[in-house]
């Protein structure tokens, strides 16, 4: 592996801060995109759950319809039996046979009444299921429309940011070449330990960026001299002076605008 060319501390600080600006922009792109895939996934899961519920309600509705058909068939069978017994009454030979046939007819009447009662119950349940099915279909349609919009939004962002992200990743690699491995490793470690990914921050109003802890004047002078790498004792972040940060932000803004 070729040894990296020795460069001044100031150039290292500038390269580190440039790298931070690039990586922060990549973070922004991924954060914007990062929320949408989760929203898309949530919608897909919700639609999947609603679809399963719809299938279950549809199966139950179908079962109720089958039960109604079965009970109607039972009524037909009971009516046929009743008619047969009615005909048999004409040929009875004694009271015992007459009473026996009448009991059979009464039984068939009860079978018909029970079947009619069940039909009414299944019809009520069918109506309830129909309402549930229509509500679910409407909800699924709404969610699918929402999902379509989110997918279009995600695809649009992917299309818009993919080119920029590739360019930034390439620039990140280029700027890393100007920095020793131990500094790159330190930079990456700090970034992984802070929520906002800011491993290098400027001194602002006597404190490190985003911090309320003041930095001693002597330390501020050392930072402004750009003669050595100085870290914030509270956050562990690498510190640069405000003027250097301003200059590098303007330079990187020009690069970002050419994406």
Features:
259 residues; mainly alpha; Helix Hairpins; four-stranded mixed sheet; 5 helices; 4 strands; 77% helix; rod-shaped
C-alpha Rg (nearest Å): 40 Å
CATH class of one domain: Mainly Alpha
According to CATH, the fold-level topology of one domain is Helix Hairpins
* Percent of residues in beta strands: under 5%
Number of strands: 4
Report the principal-axis shape: rod-shaped
What is the CATH architecture term of one domain?
A: Orthogonal Bundle
Cα end-to-end separation? 31 Å
The helix content, as a percent range, equals over 70%
Note poorly predicted spans.
none
Helix count from the secondary structure assignment:
5
SSE-based structural type: mainly alpha
The strand line-up of the biggest sheet is: 2-1-4-3
Helix-strand string:
HHHEEHEEH
Main β-sheet, in a few words?
4 strands, mixed
Average pLDDT score: 89
Explain what this protein looks like in three dimensions:
- This protein is mainly α and about 260 residues long.
- It has a domain at about 30-165: Helix Hairpins (Orthogonal Bundle).
- About 75% of the residues lie in helices and about 5% in strands.
- The chain has helices at about 10-90, 95-175, 180-195, 215-225, 240-255, and strands spanning about 200-205, 205-210, 230, 240.
- Strands 2-1-4-3 form a four-stranded mixed beta sheet.
- The longest helix has about 80 residues, at about 95-175.
- The relative contact order is 0.14.
């Amino acid at each position: 592996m070729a040894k990296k060319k020795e460069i001044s501390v100031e150039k290292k600080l500038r390269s580190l801060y440039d790298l931070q600006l690039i990586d922060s922009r990549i973070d922004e792109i991924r954060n914007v995109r990062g929320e949408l895939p989760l929203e898309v996934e949530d919608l897909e899961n919700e639609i999947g759950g609603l679809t399963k519920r719809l299938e279950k309600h549809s199966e139950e509705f179908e079962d109720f319809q089958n039960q109604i058909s079965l009970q109607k068939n039972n009524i037909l069978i009971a009516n046929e039996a009743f008619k047969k017994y009615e005909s048999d009454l004409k040929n009875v030979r004694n009271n015992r046979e007459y009473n026996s046939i009448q009991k059979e007819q009464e039984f068939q009447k009860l079978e018909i009444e029970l079947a009619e009662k069940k039909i009414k119950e299944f019809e009520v349940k069918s109506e309830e299921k129909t309402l549930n099915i229509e509500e679910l279909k409407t909800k699924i349609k709404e969610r699918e429309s929402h999902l379509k919009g989110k997918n279009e939004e995600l695809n649009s962002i992917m299309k818009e940011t993919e080119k920029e992200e590739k360019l930034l990743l390439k620039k990140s690699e280029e700027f890393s070449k100007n920095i020793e491995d131990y500094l790159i490793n330190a930079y990456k470690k700090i970034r992984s330990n802070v929520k906002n990914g800011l491993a290098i921050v400027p001194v602002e109003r006597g404190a490190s960026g985003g911090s309320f802890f003041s930095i001693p004047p002597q330390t501020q002078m050392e930072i402004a001299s750009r003669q050595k790498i100085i870290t914030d004792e509270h956050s562990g972040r690498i510190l640069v002076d405000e003027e250097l940060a301003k200059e590098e932000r303007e330079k990187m803004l020009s690069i970002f605008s050419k994406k």
